[in-house]
Amino acid sequence: MHEAAPVLAVEARGVVFSYGARRALDGFTLAVPKGSLFGLLGPNGSGKSTFLSLVAEMRAPSEGALRVLGEAPRAALRRRVGVVSQESSLDPLMTPREVLVLFGRLYGLSRDEARARADRLLTAVGLAGRAADRIDTLSGGMRRRLEAARALLHEPELLVLDEPTTGIDAAEREAFWKLVRDARDRGTTVLFATNDLAEADAVCELAAFVRDGRVLAAGTPSELKRGLRSETVVVGWADPTDGELEAVRRLPETGDVVQDGDTVRVSTDDASILVPKLFALAGRRITSVQIHPTTLADAYFAHVGGRVREREGVI
User: Fold this and answer.
1) How far apart are CA 295 and CA 230, in angstroms?
2) Between the N and C ends of the chain, which has fewer C-beta atoms within 10 Å?
3) Strand pairing of 158-162 and 81-84?
């Protein structure tokens, strides 16, 4: 028997969208199953934020098809979506409780229900003790949690997050993602964009690699890593030649070999055998060696062929 196709919260087929002469999305195709925690991963300018803006603002693409919660984009669908934008939009002179009650009223909740949900969410995000303090006294992580609480106040079916943890510390990130996972566990679909591949590896159930306005690959982290060896050796290598790289590819311990300037990534099942052979090949031109279990970052670099550098915003 064939498995039933998953119910999709977001579906894009061949989406094209431009800012003037610049094409930000160029045949963007994606399927986000309902109830999933789905990450869009790519460098700055890859198109992931543009796609999220179409979903969050219910804008139709220039070409292609976009469906959100089973429907074509329309203003009425915004009430079923919660959004945490890349830039903060909180009024620094208001208090957390005032913000949540105000937005609850804007979403049509009664005053009593808005207050009850505000207090419940402030407790959930660890801000009950700061509910009456002005927002300009809160840390960056506290503000992000407040923005997530605001986005969840009306119990949306879809939560859209654009680089939600940029600029906050590790402890604040952990608290933020706990809140998001709790929402997912209650049935909310979560679609987020990030250029932090390590964070995505830790939180994603599904992910898509995005570059130049297109989706290059999508699947579970395990599926995206499939075909790579168990370890990755990251070598600082001054001016490797094409012949040397080809010699590395011919080694029996070697999987994928990806050059990115003076950095060479080699997947392998036994770094202890591979690394001495690399030194025998390149000698003192090897300036550094790092060995780690294969990650989503390694899969990303393998899919894009080493064309993305840290200066482009992927870490």
Assistant:
1) 9
2) N
3) parallel
